[in-house]
Specification:
Elements: H1 10-14, H2 20-43, H3 47-56, H4 58-87, H5 92-111, H6 120-136, H7 146-165, H8 175-188, H9 190-213, E1 223-225, H10 226-236, H11 240-249, H12 256-259, H13 264-277, H14 282-293, E2 304-306, H15 307-343
Antiparallel strand pairs: 1-2
Helix pairs in contact: 2-4, 2-5, 4-6, 5-6, 5-15, 7-8, 7-9, 8-9, 8-15, 9-15, 10-13, 10-14, 11-13, 13-14
């Protein structure tokens, strides 16, 4: 394991880590909301604060500064996203979710144009790029494509498992983090799409068998304490940036509607790393994370697990979360689909169908 070094650049920390581009793409949703929040914050100022701002010219300077910074940010974001569409390193689920956010932002802009928000032109370009990504990630599935979809799902599962087994470059993440990110990547991509249309038991079984039979390093023997596993993760991550990266990859900092289906083990892992970043001792972080994340029924998390129980839980949680996110997308798309059918028009926005 690499010695702890909090001075490592963020690019070095993220190198070789699965789903980094997915999480960067999700960060776009925060960017869209931040632009709106800046506008709302200015609108909430009191009467005399706004009057003083006009008298001194402060409000004009602030509006110009915010506008210039947002335009620069938009240009850089669009340039990165264009490059991302060429590399094709994002999963279909995240493309669909961000497309929904862009579609909503476009509707907000059509209702009112305000300084500091994403411009209509930038939103339009963003939607166009996401539309190409949606098409290229193969999210559209019909009955006659099921055989091809099954093959694509299997190939995607195999590619992800090979990268997990032989990472190049090696991100040097603790084995539990690597296992969770592998299952998360598979569930968010073509295998998850195929699972959503009826092949979930098959995809889960194949991934579990692959993980048990061909891990990067030998699994532990017998049973292992869940708190001890979480403590080891916190201690073994090389830096605070690594811990924060893991927490955010597992849902920290993402809108609630995009992260509220996270399973208890995944939630505990994210929470433990988040608490450690805040300064908690690894043992205390693990215990607190388990208290916060475990509950009754589907949220129950045993105090110890065998290897097979652990792997099955990891895979089941990631597929269950991906399924709930796809269901949310389908429900979100239904009003627009109904309106389009009633008006005889096409859909507005990139990749509206998450099916």
């Amino acid at each position: 394991m690499t010695p702890r070094d909090d001075s490592l650049s963020l690019e070095i920390v993220a190198r070789g880590v699965p789903l980094v581009d997915d999480r960067l793409l999700l960060e776009l949703t925060n960017d869209l909301h931040t632009a709106n929040d800046l506008t709302r914050a200015a609108a909430r100022e009191g009467f005399f604060a706004r009057l003083l701002g006009r008298a001194t010219g402060r409000d004009r300077i602030r509006e110009r500064t915010v506008r210039d910074r947002m335009l620069s940010s938009q240009q850089l974001t669009l340039r990165w996203l264009t490059h991302l569409s060429e590399r094709m390193t994002v999963t279909d689920l995240v493309v669909a979710e961000v497309s929904e956010e862009v579609h909503d932002a476009k509707k907000r802009i059509e209702r009112v144009e305000a300084a500091g928000r994403w411009s209509a032109a930038a939103i339009g370009e963003l939607g166009a790029i996401l539309g190409r990504l949606a098409s290229d990630t193969g999210r559209f599935l019909s009955d006659h494509e099921r055989r091809l979809a099954a093959l694509e799902a299997q190939l995607a599962l195999d590619r992800a498992a090979r990268r997990w087994r032989h990472p190049r470059p090696d991100p040097e993440l603790p084995w539990l983090v690597g296992a969770v990110l592998l299952a998360r990547e598979v569930a968010s991509g073509p295998a998850g799409t195929y699972a959503f249309t009826g092949g979930e038991a098959l995809m889960q079984r194949q991934l579990v068998e692959r993980m048990l039979q061909d891990p990067p390093a030998p699994w532990f023997e017998g049973v292992k304490s869940v708190p001890a596993m979480l403590t080891a993760v916190v201690r073994d991550l090389p830096s605070e940036n690594h811990r924060l990266m893991v927490a955010e990859l597992l849902g920290l900092g993402v809108a609630d509607e995009l992260s509220d289906a996270v399973g208890p083990l995944t939630s505990a892992l994210a929470r433990a790393t988040e608490l450690a970043v805040a300064g908690a001792d690894p043992d205390d972080a693990a215990r607190a994370a388990l208290r916060d994340s475990s509950g009754s029924g589907d949220l129950f998390l045993p105090s110890s697990l065998s290897v097979e129980q652990l792997v099955r839980r990891i895979v089941a949680e990631q597929f269950a979360e991906a399924r709930q996110r796809r269901i949310r997308l389908r429900k979100h798309a239904e009003p627009d689909d109904d309106a389009a059918a009633a008006g005889g028009g096409g859909q507005d926005g990139a990749g509206r169908d998450a099916r």
